[in-house]
Write a structure and sequence with these properties.
Blueprint: H1 20-28, E1 33-37, H2 43-52, E2 56-59, H3 71-88, E3 93-97, H4 106-119, E4 123-125, H5 131-139, E5 146-149, H6 156-159, H7 168-183, E6 189-192, H8 196-205, E7 210-213, E8 221-225, H9 226-229, H10 246-263, H11 277-289
Helix pairs in contact: 2-3, 3-4
Length: 290
């Protein structure tokens, strides 16, 4: 008896996705890395970015963007967020912004990091992680792609969101920060709000990919948040470039549809279909007798 073999995979790894190894090869070959962050705009924007060949999608859970949620809610939403993004994007590298509370404890860091890789993330972003915690995650095969320079997120309540690396001593501190991350297993990182010369020098010195944010230096690539790309911020950041005004385009489309509905132009006869005349008569008769 011949039994049909099922298409079963023994690993969650994918040869088609842009893993950390693929990003490393891009750096080694001098190919620029393009990183986007859809923020609240969602998975459809990840789909569009993948369709044109963007390399990295960085996202927190959709719930964390709104704030005021418990850790339990955040953890549940994290898995669903990653799963939804992966449904829309099959190739782009998903760099997931881990909730800080998940790496306050080593076992939690590995537990949730591994869980989110299982759901489709390619790497974790543990913002401001300590070297010992990072090494524990790396030793337990949780891939990380992190961040140096100006800290982003809730940590800015303590540090402030400001330009860093303006003195030689502070610039060297940031380099050592990145070097120690690299040596403790981090597969790549972004660098934020550092002088162009500093960012570029660090990218050239480190073995792993270094992508710049709000610094202007070419490095191994650049990141921009979609809210900047599409001109949706009330005050544009100095590093941003608006490539399309999204809100006017959306409003124009909605207004066209709204106007057609209000004036009776939509829907037309060809937007639906008709019942068989005999069945229609029977249906009307049933309705009258009800």
């Amino acid at each position: 008896m011949e039994v049909e073999k099922q298409n079963i995979k023994m690993s969650t790894a994918s040869k088609s996705r842009k893993s950390l190894a693929v990003l490393q090869k891009m750096k080694d070959n001098g190919e620029k890395i393009v990183q986007m962050c859809p923020a609240e705009l969602g998975p459809v924007f990840g789909l569009a970015a993948e369709m044109v060949g963007c390399d990295i999608l960085r996202t927190p859970s959709l719930l964390s963007l709104r704030g005021g949620n418990s850790l339990e809610e955040e953890l549940t939403c994290s898995s669903l967020t990653i799963k939804k993004y992966r449904e829309y994007t099959k190739v782009i590298h998903i760099n997931y912004y881990m909730p800080t509370a998940c790496y306050a404890d080593k076992s939690l860091a590995v537990r949730w990091g591994a869980n989110w890789v299982f759901y489709g993330a390619d790497s974790m972003l543990p913002m401001g992680i300590t070297n010992d915690m990072l090494k524990f995650m790396s030793d337990n095969y949780v891939p990380t792609y992190g961040h140096i320079g100006a800290i982003s997120g809730w940590q800015t309540n303590a540090t402030g969101y400001k330009r860093v690396g303006k003195t030689a001593e502070d610039a060297f501190r940031i380099f050592k920060w990145g070097y120690e991350y690299q040596e403790n297993g981090m597969g790549g990182m972004t660098i934020e709000l550092t002088p162009m010369e500093v960012s570029q020098a660090i990218a050239e010195k480190l073995r792993v990919p270094v992508v710049s944010i709000a610094g202007g230096a070419p490095c191994d690539g650049s990141e921009m948040v979609d809210m900047d790309t599409f001109g949706m911020m009330p005050k544009p950041a100095s590093h941003s470039v608006t490539y399309a005004e999204l809100l006017p385009f959306l409003c124009e489309a909605y207004m066209g549809w709204l106007t057609d509905v209000k004036t009776g132009e939509y829907p037309k006869d060809n937007h639906g279909y008709h019942m068989d005349p005999e069945e229609l008569e029977k249906f009307k008769d049933m309705m009258e007798k009800f």
